[in-house]
Design brief:
Number of strands of chain A: 11
Radius of gyration of chain A: 13 Å
Distance between the termini of chain B: 40 Å
Shape of chain A: globular
Structural class of chain B: mainly beta
Distance between the termini of chain A: 36 Å
Number of strands of chain B: 10
Oligomer: heterodimer
Helix content of chain B: under 10%
Largest sheet of chain A: 7 strands, mixed
Structural class of chain A: mainly beta
Radius of gyration of chain B: 13 Å
Largest interface: A-B, 23 and 23 residues
Helix content of chain A: under 10%
Strand order of the largest sheet of chain B: 1-3-8-7-6
Number of helices of chain A: 0
Number of helices of chain B: 0
Strand content of chain A: over 45%
Order of helices and strands of chain A: EEEEEEEEEEE
Chain lengths: 115, 109
């Protein structure tokens, strides 16, 4: 199965700064997800995105988070004003086909460090 | 919501079998996934089982599902040092996957 790539692999930022994490699916899939994993913790769902709209989001995904697919290819997660507790691995995932219930394939992740 | 529990650590000798257990609460889970995470890497889909199956075998991997008890297990036969990783159970009844905390498998040579 074609995978997704994520950039950057590691991002270091100062508290209060904005960061944009990118996910580049290789094939033309419609369902995308963002998950995060705080060090030593479980992987947590943030948001799912279908057909250029948010289809579901968790309580973690508050107003400081946003997602978009501006150029029809890259899928981005923006954190407007980073906090120390945003430090985590952020994983993008996509399904094998268009349906949301299909198997999710994950990218390698972006490690975000907020200082 | 869904709650997924796994034991945190498992240590086995190379060549032995490993059994990683998982319990979940959502009986409507239709697919139950196992993901593997090697140090510093992303989540790699290892295998999955559909909820109407009891067992699925894929080379060295055997997945057992007890729907009544909501218990899932992953057996790795002839465990190798390359199997050292964190293994996550993730039932899926709806769109977002719900992960357990993961079981860290250490393989002793």
């Amino acid at each position: 199965e074609p995978e997704v790539t994520q950039t950057p692999s590691h991002q270091v930022t100062q508290m209060g700064q904005e960061v944009i994490l990118r996910c580049v699916p290789i094939s033309n899939h419609l369902y995308f997800y963002w998950y995060r994993q705080i060090l030593g913790q479980k992987v947590e769902f943030l948001v799912s995105f279908y057909n250029n709209e948010i289809s579901e989001k968790s309580e973690i995904f508050d107003d400081q988070f946003s997602v978009e697919r501006p150029d029809g290819s890259n899928f981005t997660l923006k954190i407007r004003s980073t906090k120390l507790e945003d430090s985590a691995m952020y994983f993008c995932a996509r399904t094998g086909r268009a349906r949301s219930t299909d198997t999710q394939y994950f990218g390698p992740g972006t490690r975000l460090t907020v200082l | 919501g869904e709650d997924v529990e796994q034991s945190l650590f498992l240590s086995v000798r190379e060549g032995d079998s490993s059994v990683i257990n998982c319990t979940y609460t959502d009986s409507s889970s239709t697919y139950l996934y196992w993901y593997k995470q090697e140090p510093g890497a992303g989540l790699q889909l290892l295998t999955y089982i559909f909820s109407n199956m009891d067992m699925k075998q894929d080379q060295r991997l055997t997945v057992l599902l007890n729907k009544k008890d909501k218990h899932l297990s992953l057996r790795i036969a002839d465990t190798q040092t390359g199997d050292s990783a964190i293994y996550f159970c993730a039932p899926s009844g709806n769109t977002p996957l719900v992960f357990g905390k993961g079981t860290r498998l250490s393989v002793i040579a």
